[in-house]
């Protein structure tokens, strides 16, 4: 059985794929409608039919009003541009661009803003009389936008992190048990110690400073006395200043003479 985060990962990426497909369909249908509108305007300009009382040019979504063709073309171009930006946001490239210039579509925000954009684009297309292909694509995008807004309300800013492949790998590494070496550390003995163990009968070699070691025994004392005049002697026993003086025993007063006094003639 898969863990809960696996179901979240699969479900969110499924919605992500459907979102990209719906926006690709809207992208293709917008180009188709744009071409169709331009052809309809060209036909109306060549025909002799009076279209003063018509609200739209026949066979197009272009309103029959001043600058109607301009605003119809601008509308389709803006929809195409918005769909391209939303597709790049869903793909996650370039993430640094969205973080700096359009943070609501970046990886640190949820899917609520993306759903709102999709909702508005779908509603804009559905508000016009379009062909069946454009109608289905716009309705599909509208439904995905509502679903993304719902997911954004549930998961908030964690939605894109839960569906990210990089975060999935990072969490998978954290779940795996880490191997810890419980063996005690091995300390490599010094080369001089090993050489003395295997060459016990040989004389000690001088160390890196060119001197032989004598240790702290008689040989070391002799060597120190001969070289620098230092002698190792036993320190004098003394008591600290705060220690009380030792009590005097009675035996110490045994050898002292008793005091003598002259008797007075008037003494009784």
Strand content: under 5%
Gyration radius, rounded: 50 Å
What spatial form do the alpha-carbon principal axes imply?
rod-shaped
- What series of H and E elements makes up the topology? HHHHHHHHH
Alpha-beta content class: mainly alpha
* Overall strand count: 0
Low-pLDDT parts are none
Largest sheet: none
Oligomeric grouping of the chains: single chain
Q: What's the helical proportion of residues?
A: 55-70%
Distance between the termini: 122 Å
Number of helices: 9
Mean pLDDT: 78
3D architecture notes:
There is one protein chain. The chain has 268 residues and is mostly helical. Helices cover 55% and strands 0% of the residues. It contains nine helices and no strands. It has helices spanning 4-46, 68-91, 95-101, 112-126, 132-155, 159-163, 165-175, 191-198, 218-228. Helix 2 runs antiparallel to helix 4. The chain starts with a helix and ends in a 40-residue tail after the last helix.
List keywords for this structure.
mainly alpha, 268 residues
Would you summarize the structure shown here?
This protein is mainly α. It is about 55% helix and about 0% strand.
């Amino acid at each position: 059985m898969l863990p809960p985060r696996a179901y979240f990962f699969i479900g969110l990426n499924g919605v992500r794929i459907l979102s990209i497909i719906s926006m690709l369909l809207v992208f293709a249908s917008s180009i188709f409608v744009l071409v169709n509108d331009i052809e309809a305007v060209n036909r109306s300009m060549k025909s002799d039919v009076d279209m003063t009382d018509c609200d739209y040019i026949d066979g197009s979504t272009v309103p029959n009003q001043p600058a109607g063709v301009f605003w119809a073309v601008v509308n389709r171009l803006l929809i195409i541009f918005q769909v391209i930006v939303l597709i790049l946001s869903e793909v996650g490239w370039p993430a640094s661009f969205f973080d700096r210039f359009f943070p609501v579509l970046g990886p640190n925000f949820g899917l609520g803003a993306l759903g709102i954009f999709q909702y508005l684009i779908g509603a804009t297309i559905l508000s016009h009389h379009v062909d069946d292909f454009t109608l289905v694509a716009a309705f599909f995008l509208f439904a995905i936008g509502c679903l993304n807004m719902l997911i954004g309300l549930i998961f908030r800013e964690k939605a894109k992190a839960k569906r990210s492949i990089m975060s999935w790998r990072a969490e998978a590494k954290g779940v795996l048990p880490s191997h810890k070496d419980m063996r005690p550390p091995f300390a490599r003995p010094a080369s001089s110690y090993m050489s003395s163990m295997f060459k016990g009968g040989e004389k000690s070699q001088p160390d890196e400073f060119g001197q032989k070691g004598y240790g702290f025994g008689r040989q070391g004392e002799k060597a120190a006395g001969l070289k620098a005049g230092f002698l190792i002697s036993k320190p004098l026993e003394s008591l600290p200043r705060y220690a009380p003086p030792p009590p005097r025993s009675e035996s110490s007063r045994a050898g002292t003479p008793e005091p003598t006094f002259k008797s007075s003639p008037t003494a009784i």
